[in-house]
Amino acid sequence: MQLIYSPASPFVRKVCVLMEEAGIADQISKLPVATTALATAPEALAANPTGKIPALTRTDGPAIYDSRVICRYLDDRAESGLYPDTRLWEVLTLEATADAIMESGIAMVYEARLRPPEKQFDGWIEAQWGKIARAVSVINERWMSHLNGPLDMSHIAVACALGYLDFRMADRAWRKGNDALDDWYATFSQRPSMQATEPE
């Protein structure tokens, strides 16, 4: 199997952290690509008609894509139990919340990087940050008992989302007013899987 990836993508990082936690990182090669919404890498396009990463090519079937699909596939293959049946809907909901943080964060980065300055819309950027801030606040207020429980995919997703906020928009200070989540992330981010996948 081969993972088509960019190390700066939080969606890619989710997959890579799972690979580390499941002990299968050495079973999957990585193909780094440089791709954006305006300039799609041909390798990404060949694996995913939308050109988005990550995508996972396989020898025993067609390429699969979308980080949630890849994570479910690899978790099932490795039997790592990161989507436990006993709390599956909570895991999926929290993973979706983390993915929404990532999506809004990437949208903010693209607005600043890909659009000419005279066409950038500050109101739209702030609306994206509003989504992020609300999601982070809800995780801090409602989900800490879950995050402090046994490791599952939602922990990985939330950590990768928060890591992306630190990586791309540290000046936005997501920690303010979210002390419990801040403390949790300070510990979780020290896991070997997180350290091994930290973007430069």
From TrEMBL:
Domain GST N-terminal: 1-82
UniProt keyword annotations, A-Z: Transferase
Top-level taxonomic group: Bacteria
Record InterPro entries: Glutathione-S-Trfase_C_sf, Glutathione_S-Trfase_N, GST_Omega/HSP26, Thioredoxin-like_sf
GO molecular function: transferase activity
CDD domains named in the record: GST_C_6, GST_N_3
Gene Ontology CC terms: cytoplasm
PANTHER family, alphabetized: GLUTATHIONE S-TRANSFERASE OMEGA (PTHR43968:SF6), PTHR43968
Protein name: Glutathione S-transferase
Lineage: Bacteria, Pseudomonadati, Pseudomonadota, Alphaproteobacteria, Rhodobacterales
